[in-house]
User: Which sequence fits this backbone?
């Protein structure tokens, strides 16, 4: 077995390992020995990841005695569509998948969302494993059991909480990662420091160059730390109802709005970076932090090479409307995660619109 670290995610009903290391993908069949398994597996992957790792994983599994299939879906959000879901169900039925068969999500956050949704609903729930191949999915999306598909009226509107049996985080898989996506993933990494751990924030700031080197020890360490942060948050607030898991949404009220407004030309992490900067400024405008703290947050993001500003021509009224429709919003009020300091945050469910407007206009 390769060297690896194990983080255990424990909720009231579930306990499973998050394995973090390099080359751990090769040990996937060994890690699967621990759960009841009918030897049929489907690797759900997308058209970008399939040529890189799809057949490789299929072979690993068939060499270990599994009847393994690859099911290809579109890359990105396009796969989170009921028509794709139906097609994947059709394939699983044609392969005679039963209640002890296994779905393996091999890809980024969208592939994981789709595969989790399929695993949760096929025969009321079958085994599933997350093998995230993007930095963003490794440090956030693949962990914690959120799975959803989109509706024409909105992102992630149809979904479930359904945990995998195992999350296998192989940092070496990032060697084929597009550089812009890798940098975008750093936004979610530094976010953990900003919302809950000022020491980790300093670590990211002082190792920024090394974190963009996939073979560095610093990146492995940061990914592991983020998996620990995510596991600890999910274990305290599995169903996102206590305002604890909600802090992971720092930067996402403004971020989702600018991401949608850009017609998804911005990467998710880039949009979240812009969002974190604005939401830090809203925190300052509301008197929760000093302006210098907000400036430090924005500077750290731009030092990572991430964007921090909404394009000048953006229509503020449209952005505000998108924020009112954010999933955290209740009764049309703008909800936002705000900062009390670097390393400390909370969810505010009703941020005055005039403050958001003022920050957007003056920045
Ligand atoms: N990605 C946010 C969450 O898992 O709650």
Assistant:
């Amino acid at each position: 077995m390769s060297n690896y670290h194990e983080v255990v995610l424990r909720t009231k009903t579930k306990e499973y390992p998050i394995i973090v290391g390099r080359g751990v993908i090769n040990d996937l069949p060994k890690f699967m020995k621990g759960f009841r398994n009918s030897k049929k597996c489907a690797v759900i992957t997308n058209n970008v990841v399939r040529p890189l790792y799809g057949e490789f994983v299929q072979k690993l599994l068939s060499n270990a005695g599994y009847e393994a299939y690859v099911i290809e879906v579109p890359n990105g959000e396009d796969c989170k569509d009921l028509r794709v879901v139906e097609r994947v169900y059709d394939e699983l039925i044609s392969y005679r998948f039963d209640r002890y068969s296994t779905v393996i999500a091999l890809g980024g956050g969208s592939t994981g969302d789709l595969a989790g949704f399929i695993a949760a609903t096929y025969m009321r729930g079958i085994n599933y494993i997350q093998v995230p191949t993007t930095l963003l999915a490794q440090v956030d999306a693949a962990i914690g059991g959120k799975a959803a598909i989109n509706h024409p009226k909105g992102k992630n509107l149809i979904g479930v909480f359904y945990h995998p049996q195992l999350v296998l985080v192989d940092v070496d898989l990032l060697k084929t990662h597009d550089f812009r996506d890798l940098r975008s993933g750093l936004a979610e990494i530094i976010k953990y420091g900003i919302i809950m751990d000022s020491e980790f924030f300093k670590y990211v700031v002082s190792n920024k160059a090394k974190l963009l080197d996939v073979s560095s020890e610093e990146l492995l360490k940061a990914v592991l730390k983020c998996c620990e942060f995510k596991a600890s948050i999910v274990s305290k607030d599995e169903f996102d109802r206590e305002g604890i898991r909600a802090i992971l949404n720092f930067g996402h009220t403004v971020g989702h709005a600018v991401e949608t407004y850009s017609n998804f030309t911005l990467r998710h992490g880039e949009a979240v970076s812009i969002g974190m900067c604005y939401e830090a400024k809203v925190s300052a405008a509301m008197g929760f932090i000093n302006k210098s703290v907000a400036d430090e947050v924005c500077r750290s993001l731009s030092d990572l090479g991430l964007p921090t500003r909404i394009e000048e021509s953006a229509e503020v009224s449209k952005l505000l409307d998108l924020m009112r429709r954010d999933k955290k919003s209740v009764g049309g009020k703008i909800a936002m995660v705000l900062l009390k300091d670097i390393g400390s945050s909370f969810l505010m469910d009703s941020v005055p619109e005039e403050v958001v407007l003022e920050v957007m206009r003056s920045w």
